[in-house]
Amino acid sequence: MTVAASLRSRRARDPLPGFRLALGGTLLWVGLIVALPLTALIVRPWQEGPSAMLAALHDGRMFAALRVSFTTALLAALIDVPLGLTLAWALVRGRLPGRRIADGLIDLPFAIPTAVTGITLATLYGPQGWLGAPLAKLGLSIAYSATGIVVALMFVGLPFIVRSVEPVLRDLPPELEEAAGLLGARPWQTVWRVILPTLLPAAVSGFGLAFARGIGEYGSVIFIAGNQPYHSEIAPLLVVVRLQEYDYAGATSIAFVLLVISSLCLAAVAWLRRRVARGLIVGADE
């Protein structure tokens, strides 16, 4: 085989010059910043023997903090789904004044520091706040409770729902809705049978992202939660408390348990997303 033929054959097999080198460098970098820290987190709790893990598994405060973190994150993500769908619809299909400003404000929770978010929400919903004072007169307490945690997680999780649904909604042709109307479908039937099934996989993806963000959220929560052990203390805060007590084994044990439960929950969300998408594909083929 001549040199020219060898070069042509190599180019046919590798259409992107330097792809293997770039792929190797990328995998190495991802391994250093993702795989290596996760491996250390998995190995560290067992270095001092199983006693640290057994102590963590008998820590009622840890399980209470995990319960608060996961229940509030789940509730906030569930509430964000209909709100995000409605807001995405208003941004894509609506012709409201100030729509561009509202579209820019959606990404604000991504940009501002989480501590600023927490202080702002605590001031707003506190006993003397603009919203907290009228609600307190009605007997509703938002700040320094689990309800305040849900409000904070709704704020930071809403953009995930909107940005997941918005591209799918933009690609959804309005002709489908018009065809459903011509066939006699009522508006609620068009929404339920035509629009929502198409948006459901994206909504599940956004729900998973908002739920994952809520589990690990720290800065925007601690200022409004009250941080009462067994009541409004979140798992990330308990990890920080253990570190401040120089209980590194206990902190890594709690982080390990949090990692395992979070991975299982995210795997369940990914499984649900695949099932929903597969059901839509099978329904379309039929």
UniProtKB/TrEMBL annotation:
Molecular function via GO: ABC-type sulfate transporter activity
Record membrane topology: Multi-pass membrane protein
Localization of this protein: Cell membrane
Alphabetic keyword roster: Membrane, Sulfate transport, Transmembrane, Transmembrane helix, Transport
Gene3D superfamilies named in the record: MetI-like
SUBUNIT field: The complex is composed of two ATP-binding proteins (CysA), two transmembrane proteins (CysT and CysW) and a solute-binding protein (CysP).
Protein name as it appears in the record: Sulfate transport system permease protein CysT
Organism of this sequence: Acetobacter estunensis
Primary gene name: cysT
